[in-house]
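Quick one:
INPUT:
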C-alpha cells in the first residue's frame, strides 16, 4: 500500500509453490455492509504501507507465503516462450542477445524463481537501508531474458529485510508470485483478476508529508503472507498477523512506504497490462547485494 500503510492489513495467503522467501476474477464491486467493513479495516491498515505501521512478515524459509523461493529447484532459465515485450533490453541490447540469466541475480536468488515463471519483475534496492529502488519487467523469449524499461520505484522507509515483521518498516526480500490485482480505478484491461472497489480509497499523508490519495488507484498484490485468488483487500494471513502482509505494488505517492513497492501511475498501468497469469509472473525484490547472492 501506500507509505502510511503496509498495504491493507488484511492478510492474504502466500502463493502456493512460490519461492522460499515468504510470499505466501473478474472486476468485483464491493457494496453494502461488506464494503463498509472493508473500508474501515483498510483505513486502519493504511497506517502501514507508507505512513506508519508497516506490516511485515518474516522473510525466512519458514514463511509459507506464496514465494518462488520455496522451490529452490526452480530455475529462472526455463526455455519457454515469453509474452511480447520491448524490442530490446533496458541497456538497449537487441532481443536476439537476451541474456540466459537475469542480470544482477545470484545463484541463490535464481534458484527461488519457479521453473515455469516467464515474467519476472525485479525490484532492486540501492542498499539494505535505502528506500529508493528500480524495477524492471523481464520476459523470457525462449532463449533468454528480455528486459523492459527501467522504472524508478520506492520501497519501505527503512529499506529491506529477510526477516520481515509487522511494523518494522522494511520491505521483505524474496521471490513472490503475482496473482491478483485491483484498485480504485476501473480495470485498465489486465489479464489478472481485478477487484475494482472503493475500499482502495486512502487519505492522509506519508512519512515525508506527501499526500497518500490515489496511491491505490492501481494495485498488484505481492503474494507474501496472503491468500492468492482473493482481492488484494483480503486480510487472511496464513503466517499470522505479526508476520505482516498487505504488501503491494501500487502507485507511488512520492515517498517511502511501510513495506510495499511504489511505481509511477503510468508504470503501474503498463505493468497491469503486461502481466499474464499464463506466464506465471513473480516479483524478485530486495537490495542489490542480497539479490546478487
Amino acid at each position: 500500500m501506500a507509505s502510511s500503510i503496509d498495504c491493507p492489513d488484511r492478510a492474504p495467503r502466500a502463493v502456493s509453490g512460490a519461492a522460499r522467501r515468504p510470499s505466501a476474477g473478474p472486476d468485483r464491486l464491493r457494496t453494502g455492509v461488506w464494503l463498509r467493513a472493508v473500508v474501515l479495516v483498510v483505513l486502519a491498515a493504511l497506517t502501514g504501507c507508507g505512513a506508519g505501521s508497516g506490516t511485515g512478515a518474516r522473510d525466512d524459509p519458514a514463511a509459507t507465503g506464496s514465494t518462488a523461493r520455496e522451490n529452490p529447484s526452480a530455475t529462472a532459465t526455463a526455455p519457454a516462450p515469453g509474452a511480447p515485450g520491448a524490442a530490446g533490453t533496458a541497456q538497449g541490447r537487441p532481443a536476439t542477445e537476451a541474456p540466459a540469466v537475469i542480470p544482477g541475480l545470484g545463484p541463490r536468488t535464481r534458484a527461488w524463481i519457479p521453473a515455469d515463471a516467464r515474467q519476472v519483475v525485479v525490484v532492486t534496492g540501492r542498499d539494505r537501508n535505502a528506500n529508493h529502488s528500480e524495477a524492471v519487467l523481464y520476459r523470457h523469449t525462449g532463449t533468454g531474458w528480455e528486459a523492459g524499461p527501467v522504472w524508478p520505484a520506492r520501497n519501505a522507509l527503512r529499506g529491506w529485510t529477510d526477516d520481515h515483521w509487522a511494523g518494522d518498516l522494511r520491505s521483505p526480500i524474496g521471490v513472490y508470485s503475482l496473482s491478483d490485482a485491483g484498485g480504485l480505478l476501473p480495470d485498465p484491461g489486465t489479464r489478472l483478476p481485478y477487484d475494482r472497489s472503493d475500499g482502495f480509497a486512502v487519505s492522509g499523508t506519508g512519512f515525508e508529508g506527501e499526500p497518500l490519495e490515489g496511491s491505490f488507484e492501481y494495485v498488484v498484490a505481492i503474494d507474501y503472507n496472503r491468500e492468492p485468488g482473493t482481492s488484494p483487500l483480503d486480510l487472511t494471513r496464513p503466517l499470522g498477523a505479526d508476520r505482516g502482509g498487505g504488501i503491494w505494488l501500487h502507485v507511488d505517492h512520492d515517498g517511502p512506504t511501510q513495506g510495499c513497492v511504489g511505481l509511477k501511475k503510468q508504470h503501474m498501468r503498463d505493468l497491469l497490462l503486461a502481466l499474464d497469469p499464463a506466464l506465471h509472473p513473480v516479483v524478485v525484490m530486495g537490495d542489490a547485494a542480497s539479490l546478487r547472492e
